[in-house]
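hiii so um. not sure if this is the right channel but i have a protein structure encoded as tokens and i wanna go backwards to a sequence. like what aa goes where. can anyone help
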């Protein structure tokens, strides 16, 4: 669930909604040039770094130097280290050695590709940008730019048949200063709003138990003004679109009182298809997983065990992914078994499922493997009243409250209890009640603090607090990772009795919640429940739905069975590969196995000479030949014996048996944990489908309340969601009931 304002929440729930908005931005980037381009040697400062200009570098790290109107003393710049500091400089981009006012400065960009056409170039110069400069291609095309006023310069100029560009600079905004370049992109960005967007649809799916690979599809239809997207138009943008170009989607909603537009990021996706006619252009985008089709074949049986974290990193690198989040809990979970030959995206799905995680893509396009359960946690305090039970706040059950003489606290509707004369051993099921009581100003001499300690390091988006009849006036949340402070977050939301704080709490295993005062004087902190992870304050009411929910009762499941696989040696040697090959001396070939194998030896015409195994795994072997000619080639080896044991969780007396097979499970404890996790999912067995008014803030895998006339506070997990835009929002939801 994305964080939104209280005004947004109230207006979206009202009978009549305000106007909806959409904003799309995508860059027409020549990806091959972007990946291979390099800056040729030039007259740059010793602390320049030209290697990262074609990535996602920003201008947030700058060295202070004595140039005209450049250096600031507000703490935002860095001092240069003494001497050469080889390897010790921050990445501050490209910086010319001389001042531009001392003479013309030029630099050359080698695209390192065959001559190509691309439209536009975007250069981030920072706040001190060049005013007059030229861009010259190796084909003699010269484009002059005068009186530039853009810190992030962009042009739509088409560069044809180009393999090199030379940039010549003559004058800067601050005359006696150096040129700085923080990033270069071969292309430019297009931005479209309501007036250009005819319709769009964003469909998202994720399995809460990792049964399938997540999927996101986005389709948008744009007005084709002046036939801008026609293929036959030489200046058409569609001629420069490439598969995999990035698109950012934002949704907006006009707040009723202020008229301001509150924007919510929709997603960051990759373009896959496009088409156009004289009136419209349709662009389709998809998630990052769709392009991760590289096969992973390096699976290896590891008797000592390999962490799931290291295995996930290896697969992501194999797929060419550099930005991702992997739950640090996976560093302490191990598998001995080899990963079978599967596509990289399927390998990640297998890892996520084995570790009770969900594989997903964030709205910023980040690949994530995150735990989909809460690890065991304990809670303590720095002082509680004699009738308090701080350990109970992690329980969901209803708490009892004792009446007291605190200001504005006690109610006489029989909802409170009298304290017994002797509390010892006679208190009711209470939550946390602080020993400290606030003064006349609602302040404490020592602030009450709750400390929640988890058995594993995790990240969460949001925490839930349910208070008693007394509310705090301020809350500060601190998180720690193995004793080191991660973040101190001061809650600025309005504090309510049932409160959900939506905020990204990065990896931590200890959380401290400090209460800085009470809303009413002479009160204690009364907290009945605390939770993180599956927290929600959103209710899908009948008013939010535009159709009656269709309830789908799935086949009854009797039990869940999860095999635990043990790999054993001892099978006789056999021929695993037998082929007639035509090879040349020094040639290398890779052969793949259908089943996990080991102990390879290779022969040519039944001789072990003239062929060498240079690399191997349980599913492949790479050989090098020392001779040329036609030969009978064979690879001999042993197949592993695979022995199964079973972890079983029984749900009911009748129904089908679900055998959940994950090839990485080599530990019975993990098998049992996985079986119980899968059983929780199947225990309800009821799904709901309905259309809605559309809510851009909802994410798949969100747990929300769903209005139901037979069950109060019924929780469901949304695992498939569609958000349509047609100058207003509409949507469709598929959700699964969460038992209990």
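sure thing!! here u go:
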């Amino acid at each position: 669930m994305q964080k939104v304002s209280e005004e947004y929440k109230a207006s979206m729930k009202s009978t009549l909604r305000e106007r909806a908005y959409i904003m799309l931005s995508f860059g027409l980037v020549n990806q091959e040039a972007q990946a291979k381009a390099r800056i040729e040697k030039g007259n740059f400062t010793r602390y320049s770094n030209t290697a990262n200009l074609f990535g996602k570098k920003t201008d947030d790290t700058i060295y202070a130097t004595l140039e005209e109107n450049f250096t600031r003393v507000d703490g935002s710049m860095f001092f240069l280290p003494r001497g050469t500091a080889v390897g010790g400089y921050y990445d501050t981009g490209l910086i010319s050695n001389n001042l531009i006012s001392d003479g013309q400065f030029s630099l050359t960009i080698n695209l390192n590709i065959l001559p190509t056409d691309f439209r536009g170039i975007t250069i981030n110069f920072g706040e001190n940008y060049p005013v007059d400069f030229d861009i010259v291609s190796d084909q003699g095309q010269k484009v002059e730019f005068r009186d530039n006023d853009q810190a992030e310069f962009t042009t739509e100029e088409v560069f044809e048949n180009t393999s090199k560009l030379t940039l010549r600079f003559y004058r800067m905004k601050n005359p006696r200063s150096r040129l700085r370049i923080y990033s270069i992109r071969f292309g430019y960005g297009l931005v479209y709003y309501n007036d250009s967007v005819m319709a769009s649809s964003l469909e998202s799916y994720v399995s809460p138990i990792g049964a399938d690979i997540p999927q996101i599809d986005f389709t948008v239809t744009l007005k084709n003004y002046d036939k801008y997207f026609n293929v036959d138009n030489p200046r058409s943008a569609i001629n420069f679109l490439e598969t995999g170009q990035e698109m950012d989607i934002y949704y907006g909603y006009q707040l009723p009182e202020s008229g301001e537009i509150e924007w919510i990021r929709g997603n960051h996706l990759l373009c896959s298809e496009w088409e156009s006619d004289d009136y419209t252009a349709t662009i389709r985008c998809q998630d990052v997983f769709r392009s991760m089709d590289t096969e992973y074949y390096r699976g290896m049986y590891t008797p000592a065990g390999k962490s799931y974290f290291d295995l996930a990193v290896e697969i992501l690198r194999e797929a060419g992914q550099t930005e991702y989040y992997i739950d640090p809990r996976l560093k302490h979970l191990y598998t001995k078994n080899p990963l079978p030959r599967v596509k990289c995206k399927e390998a990640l799905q297998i890892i996520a499922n084995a570790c009770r995680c969900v594989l997903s893509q964030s709205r910023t396009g980040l690949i994530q493997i995150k735990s989909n359960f809460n690890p065991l946690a304990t809670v303590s305090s720095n002082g509680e009243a004699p009738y308090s039970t701080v350990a109970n706040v992690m329980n969901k059950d209803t708490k009892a409250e004792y009446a007291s003489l605190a200001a504005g606290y006690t109610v006489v509707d029989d909802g409170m209890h009298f304290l017994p004369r002797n509390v010892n051993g006679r208190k009711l099921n209470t939550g946390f009640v602080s020993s400290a009581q606030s003064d006349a100003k609602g302040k404490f001499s020592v602030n009450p603090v709750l400390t929640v300690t988890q058995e594993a390091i995790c990240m969460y988006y949001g925490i839930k607090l349910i208070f008693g009849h007394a509310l705090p006036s301020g809350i500060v949340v601190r998180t720690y990772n193995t004793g080191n402070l991660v973040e101190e977050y001061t809650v600025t939301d309005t504090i309510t009795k049932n409160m959900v704080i939506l905020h990204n709490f990065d990896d931590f295993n200890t959380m401290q919640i400090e209460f800085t005062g009470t809303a009413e004087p002479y009160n204690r902190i009364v907290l009945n429940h605390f939770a993180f992870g599956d927290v929600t304050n959103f209710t899908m009411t009948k008013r939010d739905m535009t159709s009656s929910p269709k309830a789908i009762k799935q086949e009854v499941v009797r039990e869940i069975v999860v095999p635990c696989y043990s790999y054993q040696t001892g099978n006789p040697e056999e021929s695993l590969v037998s082929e007639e090959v035509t090879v040349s001396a020094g040639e290398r070939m890779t052969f793949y196995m259908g089943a996990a194998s080991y102990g390879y030896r290779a022969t040519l015409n039944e001789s072990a000479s003239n062929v060498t195994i240079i690399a191997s795994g349980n599913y492949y072997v790479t050989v090098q030949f020392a001779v040329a000619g036609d030969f009978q080639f064979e690879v001999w080896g042993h197949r592993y014996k695979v022995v199964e044991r079973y972890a079983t969780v029984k749900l009911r007396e009748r129904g089908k048996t679900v055998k959940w097979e994950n090839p990485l499970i080599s530990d019975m404890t993990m098998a049992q944990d996985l079986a119980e996790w899968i059983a929780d999912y199947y225990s309800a067995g009821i799904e709901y489908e309905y259309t809605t008014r559309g809510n851009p803030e909802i994410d798949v895998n969100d747990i929300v309340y769903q209005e139901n006339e037979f069950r109060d506070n019924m929780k469901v997990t949304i695992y498939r969601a569609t958000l349509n835009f047609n100058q207003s929002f509409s949507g469709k939801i598929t959700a699964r009931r969460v038992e209990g």
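oh and Residues 668-682 form the longest helix (15 residues).
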